[in-house]
Design a protein that fits this description.
The chain has about 150 residues and is an alpha+beta fold. The chain contains two helices and six strands. Strands 1, 2, 3, 4, 5 and 6 form a six-stranded antiparallel β-sheet that branches.
């Protein structure tokens, strides 16, 4: 995951550090970062892909990889940045960062592969064409399927 990545995120969400996120060493515990990523990706989907039927569909993580670059302290101001960099038939690839909002320092990076899942049929399903178009337009991706 240490390869050079582009730095142009359109979706940036301020994140709140809660009292119980901070351990006795005064920094945010590494397990909390995944909650930050979940919050940011949920907001991304709600912003970009309208009309998700959460009673019938789910977006599930099938692969996730995080890299911790610097500590986050309890009084830091942070934000989660999210973008989709690749769209498949039933899946998409997310890149996310947690950054210091004041300095723009990247504190952590995350790569995820997500799939769309039909809760009634209990199986993966293709991404709707309207999602594909919305993501492609939002991210400026040239090809809708890679």
């Amino acid at each position: 995951m240490t390869e050079e990545r582009r730095n142009d995120y359109r979706h940036v969400l301020p994140l709140q550090i809660r009292f119980n996120d901070v351990d006795k060493f005064g920094h945010v515990n590494n397990t909390v970062y995944f909650q930050f990523y979940d919050t940011a990706k949920t907001d991304y989907i709600a912003t970009v892909c309208k009309g998700v039927d959460w009673e019938r569909q789910a977006i599930v993580v099938v692969k996730i990889e995080a890299e911790f670059l610097a500590q986050i302290k309890g009084n830091d101001h942070i934000a989660g940045r999210t973008r989709i960099v690749k769209i498949g038939n039933k899946s998409f690839h997310l890149e996310q960062d947690v950054i210091d909002s004041d300095t723009q320092e990247v504190k952590s990076r995350c790569l995820s592969v997500m799939v769309l899942y039909d809760l009634e049929r209990q199986q993966t399903i293709p991404l709707p064409d309207e999602w594909r178009k919305a993501i492609t337009d939002y991210e400026g991706l040239e090809n809708s399927v890679q």
